[in-house]
Amino acid sequence: MLRGDPMNMTNHTTPILFDAVIVGGGAAGLSAATALGRSRRSAVVIDAGEPRNAPASGVHNFLTRDGTPPAELMQLGRAEVEGYGGTIIRGTAISVERTDAGFAVTTDDGDVIAGRRLIVTTGLVDELPNIPGLRERWGRNVLHCPYCHGWEVRDHAIGILATGPAAMHQAMMFRQLSDRVTVFLHQAPEPTDDELDQLAALGIDLVRGRVASVEASGTTLSSVTLEDGSVHPIEELVVAPIFTARSELLESLGAEVTTHPMGMGSFIEADEFGATSVPGVWAAGNVTDLMGQVVTSAAQGLRAGAAVNGDLILQEARDAVTAYRATRAEALVE
Fold first, then answer.
1. CA–CA distance, 53 with 49 (Å, rounded to integer)
2. 150-154, 211-215, 311-315, 330-334: lowest mean pLDDT where?
3. Fewer CB within 10 Å, N or C, the chain?
């Protein structure tokens, strides 16, 4: 059941202690909750309902779910979580504290959700170049990933907004999908001689000059206008955002932000199972993997959920042994 009032989950004034509190209800968070629910663990997901991929028409490269609208996929995921006994809270986690029992997460409504372990799947923010018309078309005609949107724009007139050295790679990736590709040099350095030869050999046009605005006609992109006033018709525009992980909660617990070596943004490091440098805290999805797609985020969430279950199993085994030995020692004394 989707709950808007977490205080319904209290026993008098004592909050219920969940096995895991999961902050973020995208593919990673819901997969983690499902894995925990199937292991008979109590899991609660806190989610604001504002997914990064909301503007997209469909999710792609997710086997059997190709083209599914993001909102529909999340609805199906929530139903699965709830089917295994999980709880979903609509809200934003604004702070977290370590407690004797584990962690206490406070939401924007002032409610406190307690858990023995914490999984953070808060994703990232796409920081786009400050060009009029760009943000409005983001996720529809303004794109960044050929695997997410490439098939849908095949054979279209595709522009590449060059803001750094990755633009040449983007140009070649999208040239695989269309023979009408134009690189707008914008803020990128002048291509090397080898890069110029590559562009020429592949039939990719190069336009020098800064882009001033992106123009649309109805629901479709129509052109880009340069600062010199020249207008260049295109149907799609590829950009390279700066990906910034939503890492505030993790940082407050002592996790360090890592800058991507290729300058693509910042993220929180985690091991292959999602464990962070902070004991008892796991992370999955785009907060740790800037280039992760929905299907890979779901896989990371599954791993994190399984890892948390394994960690709890070990703790419970230790606690059981301690209690068993104490009982046995008392019996020997008697």
1. 11
2. 330-334
3. C
The residue behind tokens 């894995």 is 35
At 165, phi and psi to the nearest 5?
Answer: -65, -20
- For residue 249, how far is the Cα from the chain centroid? 15
**What crossing angle do the helices spanning 27-38 and 294-333 adopt, rounded to 10°?**
40
Q: What is the pTM of this model?
A: 0.91
Question: Residue 224 in contact with residue 214, Cβ under 8 Å?
Answer: yes
The C-alpha R_g of the chain, in whole angstroms, comes to 24
pLDDT in tens, 155-177: 999 999 999 878 899 999 999 99
| The residue type at 73 | L
- The amino acid sitting at 264 is M
Q: Is 276 exposed, middle or buried (0-12, 13-18, 19+ CB in 10 A)?
A: buried
Tokens of 140: 């529809």
Q: Contact, 315 vs 290, CB < 8 A?
A: no
**Cα 46 from Cα 40, distance rounded (Å):** 19
